[in-house]
Amino acid sequence: xxxxxxxxxxxxxxxxxxxxxxxxxxxxxxxxxxxxxxxxxxxxxxxxxxxxxxxxxxxxxxxxxxxxxxxxxxxxxxxxxxxxxxxxxxxxxxxxxxxxxxxxxxxxxxxxxxxxxxxxxxxxxxxxxxxxxxxxxxxxxxxxxxxxxxxxxxxxxxxxxxxxxxxxxxxxxxxxxxxxxxxxxxxxxxxxxxxxxxxxxxxxxxxxxxxxxxxxxxxxxxxxxxxxxxxxxxx
Length: 235
What we know:
By secondary structure, this protein is mainly beta. It has a domain at 64-77 and 93-232: Jelly Rolls (Sandwich), CATH 2.60.120. Helices cover 15% and strands 41% of the residues. It has a 17-stranded mixed sheet that branches.
């Protein structure tokens, strides 16, 4: 009985993801809507972010959330992001699911996901779902045109149409994708690798292209690369 009480007490002292997922950079305007809430409230530095929350920014807004150790996600200006799930356990690993309904998202996974540990990090828009394997990537979504654009700066990302998330487990490893190249409907399951981007438009086959110098000079991309560099150096 005493042993059981000690185990329960120790488990209560273990840090949870909810306690570790916090706002570590903030540029207003930015708001958060908590799970089950109807109203938005101002987001503040140091706020916890949990599964079921939503984040949105206005013109000039920018938010960074650090998840555990050396893993971050960021949202740019005029962005709306839903977070259906954000949790971690010793048994199940990291489970992070995001739904980008407008704007710009960045994932900086300086500490790679554990392939055998159950970690899972997925981001979806209305036109695509991406499964992350440990990388630096940027995902933009234009709600008017329903166009998604994914840039992979490091690592690799698996991409499938919305609703085909189960296919992500079929990707055993990266395969070379020369660019520019159009992918047919039958091939609409692929891995986008370092220095590649994919543009997904409604009614057309996805198009894979090499990242250009103009892509890298984008102010949002440069900001994120610098933040990730600081994170990697432990600053």
